[in-house]
């Protein structure tokens, strides 16, 4: 239930109540001790907030005005997921696959009016040419479908585990531009391969790379159509060299193609540390870390909606050095005995017997 008493800039009394039936289901089938299938179904609603229901124009940004919609209804979401798991401890092989989808009725989207000529909104506000006025509306047709799989097994040749994975995604986001329905759709496919070591307790390494390719299309604004590629790779090594001396290094490489001009990035983030185990049982460690050894750290992300596509570059932490000391207090020399849980009299009787 939403209640709102508005006195400025106009008097408005709002009282909205939302009701829904929300079913859910779960099914699991066990093929064997190593394999099973699980199906889940769940529903939920998203009620509009008070700001979305208020019929008041927010003109803090003259180029992007916003207003509410008192007639807005709640959105109704249905989510389904099927997943299969296989894990054989004896062979070390495992497989996982899933397919899930989210479908929304009465999706709360934006109806955007883009002024081609100045438009008088009210006595005090004018929407200038090129400016936008956004208003939430209910639209059907939103969906988000994802798939994923991963297979791993031992690789005896190099005493390691190797894994392969991948998946796809399709999203459909509706919106309204100048009173005409617009569909922003994204198709994405990705793949991953990784190798993790099992050589010895003194050496631990992990190598992986993941690639992703996306296609973005808009039904009303084809000038926003775009394809972009992303690849992320990582190498991590931990090595106990000699007598408690520990060397650690991690190299992350990021590659982006197809973003806005001047935003495409191709950089490597390299961290490295050298430490020495100290104290009895080597419970403590003193180490020196250098972060971003190559001074290339960067951060770029892309947002896609029914009106625009934006690439955002954020400030990130640059190179620094850090001296650290850690002490492990989770090490216990012995476990609890049955006597520890007995009352003194009970312990005496046990000894007498």
Topology:
Elements: E1 2-6, E2 12-16, E3 24-30, E4 35-46, H1 50-53, E5 64-66, E6 75-88, E7 93-105, E8 107-114, E9 119-120, E10 126-127, E11 132-139, E12 142-155, E13 160-177, E14 180-197, E15 203-218, E16 226-242, E17 245-257, E18 266-278, E19 284-291, E20 300-304, E21 309-313, E22 320-327, H2 344-352
Parallel strand pairs: 5-11, 8-13
Antiparallel strand pairs: 1-2, 3-4, 4-6, 6-7, 7-12, 8-11, 9-10, 12-13, 13-14, 14-15, 15-16, 16-17, 17-18, 18-19, 19-22, 20-21
Q: Could you write a compact summary of the structure shown?
A:
By secondary structure, the chain is mainly beta. The protein is built from 2 helices and 22 strands.
Can you walk me through this structure?
The protein has 353 residues and is mainly β. It has one domain (23-352). Helix content is 4%, strand content 61%. The strands form four sheets. It has a 16-stranded mixed β-sheet that branches. It is extended and about 80 Å long. The mean pLDDT is 83.
Rounded to the nearest angstrom, the distance between the terminal CA atoms is 70 Å
- H-E order: EEEEHEEEEEEEEEEEEEEEEEEH
pLDDT below 50 for ≥5 consecutive residues: which ranges? none
Strand content: over 45%
Features:
mainly beta, 16-stranded mixed sheet, 353 residues
């Amino acid at each position: 239930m939403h209640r709102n008493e508005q006195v400025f800039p106009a008097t408005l009394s709002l009282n909205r109540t939302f009701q829904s039936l929300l079913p859910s289901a779960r099914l699991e089938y066990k093929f064997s001790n190593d394999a099973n299938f699980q199906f889940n179904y769940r529903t939920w609603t998203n009620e509009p907030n008070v700001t979305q229901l208020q019929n008041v124009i927010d003109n803090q940004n003259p180029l992007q005005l916003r207003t509410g919609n008192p007639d807005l209804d709640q959105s109704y979401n249905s989510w389904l997921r099927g997943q299969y798991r296989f894990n054989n401890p004896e062979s070390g092989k495992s497989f996982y696959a899933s397919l899930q989808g989210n479908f929304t009725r009465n999706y709360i989207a934006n109806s955007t009016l883009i002024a081609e000529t100045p438009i008088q909104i009210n006595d005090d506000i004018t929407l200038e040419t090129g400016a936008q006025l956004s208003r939430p509306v209910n639209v059907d047709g939103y969906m988000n479908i994802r798939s994923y799989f991963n297979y791993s097994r031992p690789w005896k040749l190099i005493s390691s585990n190797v894994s392969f994975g991948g998946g796809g995604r399709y999203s459909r986001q509706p919106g309204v531009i100048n009173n005409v329905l617009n569909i922003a759709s994204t198709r994405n496919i990705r793949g991953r391969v990784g190798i993790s070591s099992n050589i010895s307790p003194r050496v631990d390494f992990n190598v992986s790379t993941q690639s992703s390719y996306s296609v973005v299309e808009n039904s009303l604004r084809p000038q926003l159509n775009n394809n972009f590629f992303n690849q992320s790779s990582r190498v991590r090594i931990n090595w106990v060299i000699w007598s408690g001396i520990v060397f650690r290094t991690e190299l992350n490489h990021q590659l982006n193609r197809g973003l806005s001009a001047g935003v495409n990035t191709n950089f490597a983030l390299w961290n490295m540390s050298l430490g020495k185990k100290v104290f009895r049982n080597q419970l403590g460690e003193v180490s020196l870390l250098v972060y971003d050894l190559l001074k290339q750290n960067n951060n770029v992300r892309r947002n896609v909606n029914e009106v625009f596509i934006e690439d955002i570059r954020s400030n990130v932490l640059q190179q620094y050095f850090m001296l650290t000391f850690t002490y492990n207090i989770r090490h216990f020399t012995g476990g609890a005995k049955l006597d520890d849980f007995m009352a003194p009299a009970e312990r005496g009787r046990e000894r007498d017997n």
